[in-house]
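Researcher: Structure for this, please.
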Amino acid sequence: MNSISKEDFQIQKENLVKRLKGAIEDPFFSIILGAGVSCSEKAKGWDDLLKEFKIRLSKKLGVTVLSLALEEKVGNSGLVVAQLYREQLSNFEYFDTIYQSIYNGVAIPSRGDTLARAASDLIYKNFKKRNFRVMTYNYDNYIELYLDGRMNYDVVFNMHQNRNDEFLIYHVHGYLPYETRRYKSYDKYEKSIILTEDEYNNLYNDAYAWQIGTQLSFFRENLCLFIGCSLTDPNIRRLLRMVAKEKGNYQTKHFAIINRGKLSGIELHIATNHFFKMGVEVIWTDSHSETKDIVKDLSRL
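Model: Predicted structure, token format:
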């Protein structure tokens, strides 16, 4: 198996970026956003969110809870641990912890040079195209706050909403906008949040759930660019593989921009082939800043 040298890596990346720039002109080009977009606004990631749950429950009970031994005993995965916290905290405590973690005390929006801002600029550039669509796995509305005053849009986070004729942004794992906390209640949005083991199982075992239909629609009908998505979620991967197999020969249709981290040349080769079989060509970047710069360049075309 051939490794990827530093020179080959750079050439491959440049070629894929050129192809991506051409793909933006596809009439069915769409954008899918993941946690990396929110983290660029200082939102806490998955591991830090679980730590915040632990801190909150420990303060409530007056003793440190959920040791590593307990987590390993019940099933040491993030979804299971989130389930444990969900069962021990009140509704307000649970959703308030999520809220505090995703907004993390920062001014909204930051108006800084962030990946979220670059992604919003790319959305603004394309939103008038007839078949252009946006889907996000994030709960927050950082993107929408950047778009306020620039374009009209509506947010979809449950199947019972009255949808107008505005541009739609789909929040398939739930929605918890910045302005929520002023009302001191999360009732309007809490049923939309998909975070625990039970919630993921209920969603991804329901073939008729609107969130499943929306994802499959994007993956089947659109040429998608994944931004801030690691593509490690087994449920998302299952849907991508399903669509890739439907198309035959693992036809590549989508792009993803992913930070390479500490992957070696041979590991890059293996990972590239792995995602290719899911129908995704990966543009590997050397830093999160480079990811942002690529998205910024796309928004300027």
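Researcher: Any notable elements?
Model: The longest helix spans residues 6-23. The radius of gyration is 20 Å.
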